[in-house]
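From the methods appendix. Each design record in this collection lists the discretized structure first, followed by the designed amino acid sequence. Records were kept in a plain field format so they could be parsed without special tools. The example shown here is representative of the layout used throughout.

RECORD:
C-ALPHA CELLS (366 positions):
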C-alpha cells in the first residue's frame, strides 16, 4: 500500500503595480522563488505593462492591465507588490487589501505613521498579509548576525550602534528622480536610504523603541525642500545610543557597527551584499591590546554566509509562505512584520519632526 506524497502548495499569484526600476529586481525574485509566480502587471498604460513584461522575461501568459484599478480588480491574483511613489501608497495598498489581495509594499511604506496605520487597518480588516520590502532582513546572514548580537557572551549588552547608507547620485537623479520630488516622495533621502539605517538600528536592539531622537544640524535639502542628506542620534532610557547618516551625495556606503560590553559586530554591505550569493561580516569579542599595544588580541573573526537564492527572492519566498498559510490553511496573517514596519515608521516620523524643528529633541511615540 503506497502513501501519496503531499501536494505542493499552489504558488502565490502576484500582480506587480507599476514599472519602477526596483520592480525589475522584484520581478526577477518572483521568477526565482519557487512559491511565487508573476500573474499580472499593471501600469498607467497597457503599452508600458507589455514592455515591462517583455523586458523582464515574464511568462507569455502574464495578464497586462493599463491601469492600477484593473490590477487590483483582477480576480485571479493572491497578492500585489506595490513599488509606486510613497504618496500613492495609502490609496493603492488599501485598495488592494479591500479586494482581498495580500500586500507587499515598497519602502518607505508611508509619508507618516497615520498613513501607514490606514494601510495596516485595511490589511487587518480584510485578513490579508502585509510586509514591507526591506530585503536585507531576509538574508541568512541577518539571522546569523542576530544570533551573535543576542549572545551575551559574544557581544554583551548592546550600548552603541552606528549606521550609514549613502550613494552618490548623478545630476539626472538629483533633478528628475521621484525621490527628490516633494509631490511623489517627500521624505527624500530620509525615506529612501534612512529607512534602512533606522531599521538596522531597531534590529540591533531587538526592536526596542528609543525614548527620543535629535536630528543632526544642517541637513542638506534641494530647492524644493526635499532632503538629500541628513542624520540623527537616537537615545534610550537605559543609556543606549545610536546614530545614523543617510545621503544621496556621498560614495556608496552601507555600514552597521554594533558595539556591546563584550564585543562588536561590523558589516560593510548590509543593504546589498557585495556579491549575490555570499555575504561577509566581522565580530570582535573580548578584545584587548597585544603586548606593547602593537595590535589586537584576539583578532576579529571573519564570517561569510552563503545563499542559493538572493535576498529579494528569499523575501518573496517568505511572504509567499505566509500568504499560503492564510489562503490555504485559514491562518491569521502574521503580525510581526507589520509591527516592525510600524516601529520603523514611528522613528522616521520623529526624525523628520526633529529636522523640521531645527534639530530639537523629539520624544518617540509608541
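DESIGN:
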Amino acid at each position: 500500500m503506497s502513501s501519496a506524497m503531499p501536494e505542493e502548495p499552489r504558488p502565490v499569484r502576484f500582480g506587480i503595480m507599476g514599472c519602477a526600476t526596483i520592480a525589475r529586481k522584484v520581478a526577477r525574485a518572483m521568477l526565482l522563488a519557487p512559491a511565487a509566480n508573476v500573474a499580472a502587471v499593471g501600469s498607467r498604460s497597457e503599452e508600458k505593462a507589455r514592455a515591462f513584461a517583455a523586458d523582464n522575461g515574464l511568462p507569455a501568459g502574464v495578464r497586462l492591465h493599463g491601469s492600477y484599478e484593473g490590477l487590483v480588480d483582477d480576480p485571479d491574483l493572491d497578492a500585489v507588490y506595490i513599488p509606486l511613489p510613497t504618496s500613492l501608497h495609502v490609496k493603492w495598498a488599501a485598495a488592494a487589501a479591500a479586494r482581498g489581495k495580500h500586500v507587499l509594499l515598497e519602502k518607505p511604506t508611508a509619508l507618516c505613521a497615520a498613513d501607514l496605520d490606514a494601510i495596516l487597518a485595511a490589511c487587518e480588516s480584510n485578513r490579508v498579509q502585509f510586509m514591507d520590502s526591506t530585503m536585507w532582513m531576509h538574508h541568512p546572514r541577518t539571522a546569523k548576525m542576530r544570533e551573535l548580537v543576542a549572545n551575551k557572551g559574544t557581544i554583551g549588552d548592546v550600548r552603541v550602534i552606528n549606521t550609514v547608507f549613502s550613494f552618490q547620485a548623478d545630476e539626472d537623479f538629483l533633478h528628475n528622480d521621484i525621490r527628490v520630488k516633494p509631490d511623489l516622495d517627500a521624505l527624500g533621502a530620509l525615506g529612501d536610504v534612512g529607512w534602512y539605517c533606522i531599521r538596522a538600528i531597531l534590529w540591533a536592539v531587538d526592536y526596542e523603541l528609543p525614548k527620543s531622537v535629535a536630528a543632526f544640524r544642517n541637513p542638506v535639502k534641494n530647492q524644493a525642500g526635499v532632503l538629500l542628506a541628513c542624520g540623527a542620534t537616537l537615545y534610550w532610557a537605559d543609556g543606549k545610543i545610536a546614530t545614523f547618516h543617510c545621503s544621496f551625495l556621498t560614495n556608496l556606503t552601507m555600514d552597521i557597527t554594533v558595539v556591546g560590553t563584550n564585543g562588536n559586530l561590523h558589516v560593510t554591505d548590509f543593504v546589498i551584499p557585495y556579491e549575490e550569493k555570499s555575504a561577509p561580516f566581522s565580530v570582535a569579542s573580548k578584545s584587548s591590546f597585544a603586548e606593547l599595544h602593537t595590535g589586537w588580541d584576539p583578532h576579529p573573526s571573519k564570517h561569510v554566509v552563503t545563499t542559493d537564492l538572493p535576498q529579494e527572492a528569499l523575501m518573496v519566498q517568505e511572504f509567499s509562505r505566509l500568504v499560503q498559510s492564510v489562503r490555504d490553511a485559514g491562518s491569521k496573517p502574521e503580525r510581526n512584520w507589520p509591527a516592525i514596519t510600524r516601529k520603523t515608521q514611528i522613528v522616521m516620523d520623529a526624525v523628520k519632526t526633529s529636522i523640521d524643528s531645527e534639530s530639537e529633541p523629539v520624544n518617540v511615540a509608541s
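APPENDIX NOTE: DSSP finds ten helices and 18 strands in the chain.
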